[in-house]
Write a structure and sequence with these properties.
Layout lengths: L16 E7 L2 E7 L1 H8 L21 H15 L19 H4 L1
Antiparallel strand pairs: 1-2
């Protein structure tokens, strides 16, 4: 039986970890040795939960934001009337050759 050894994608030494990198909505996997992993993590930061600051369209407590929320709440609670199954659609219909004679 053969042993499979994962090697660093940069220097071909035995890999310590496989990392996932997301760039432009595409995911990439890279096998890295300890030295290249440390180089990659140098200066890196941990992601924060939630939305980034400043990504909200309106600030909290503003009058405009509260009125737009109230309007959208009204829109979402309205009921729509369904068309009866036997009702005809309005509009012109094409006549077939057999129906016109």
């Amino acid at each position: 039986m053969e042993a499979i050894t994962v090697v660093c994608d940069v220097c071909r030494r035995p890999a310590a970890k496989t990392v996932r990198i997301s760039v432009d909505s595409k995911n990439h996997l890279k096998d890295l040795c300890d030295a290249h992993l440390a180089e990659l993590l140098k200066g890196a930061r941990a992601p924060r939960r939630g939305r980034p600051r400043g990504s909200s369209p309106a600030k909290r407590g503003s009058a405009k934001a509260s009125t737009s929320r109230a309007k959208s709440a009204k829109r979402s609670t309205r009921k729509t009337t369904a068309r009866k199954s036997g009702a005809r659609k309005t509009g012109a219909r094409k006549r077939t050759a057999s129906a016109s004679s």
